[in-house]
Design a protein that fits this description.
Layout: H1 2-7, H2 18-26, H3 35-43, E1 53-57, H4 63-68, E2 75-80, H5 83-95, E3 106-110, E4 123-127, H6 133-149, E5 154-159, H7 164-168, E6 174-177, E7 182-187
This protein binds S-adenosylmethionine.
S-adenosylmethionine binds next to helix 4 and strand 2.
Length: 194
Amino acid sequence: MDYDWEHRVNTTSGTVGWRERLLGVFHSPYQPTDAALFREMMASLPIDFRQFTFVDIGSGKGRILLMASEYPFRRIVGVEILPELHRTAVENISAYTSPTQQCTQLEGVCGDARDFHLPEGPLVMYLFNPLPEAGLTQVLANLQRSLHQDPRQAYLLYHNPLLEERLRGCRWLQRIDSPNQFAVYRSDPGTSSA
Ligand SMILES: C[S@@+](CC[C@H](N)C(=O)[O-])C[C@H]1O[C@@H](n2cnc3c(N)ncnc32)[C@H](O)[C@@H]1O
């Protein structure tokens, strides 16, 4: 609520309608990432943000997209399966004003993350438990294929990593940090075929 009040947006889970709540049971319920924790996660990335595109898998109402725009990413994209949440994310992107915003290339895509075509260039992929295990496996396979076809740096930020075993099982990913509430993985160019 504090975040929404401060930025005049609507990203809280408290105002999600009953229909989206019900659908959330079948996908994964919308819950936004805490702003302070997000800053901690960003600080753990040893990257030049200007070269990277940030991708939020399951972007909900788009709070992560707004928070990521406080960093000088090349581009920011979120994919969300529920149309109502996606619409709110698009409204939030338009409404967001911040004197410290560093990236204005923000885009919300409505669709299934399992079918999402990953953007070119170095990537930061953000996961806050958007998918059950089979879906996560598919997203990881898509990422591996994309990196194999177009070798480039990729980082995964996994918030509340309930299914971290899936990432640990990927030999093409290397865990570089794992504080309490999140894990950071990296794939270097040329390792994605491993
Ligand atoms: C825990 S919320 C995270 C929201 C946002 N990433 C954040 O951290 O603030 C997970 C989101 O994933 C979405 N989701 C679930 N399955 C999905 C899928 N297959 N494709 C895209 N989005 C999905 C849900 O609707 C929900 O909005």
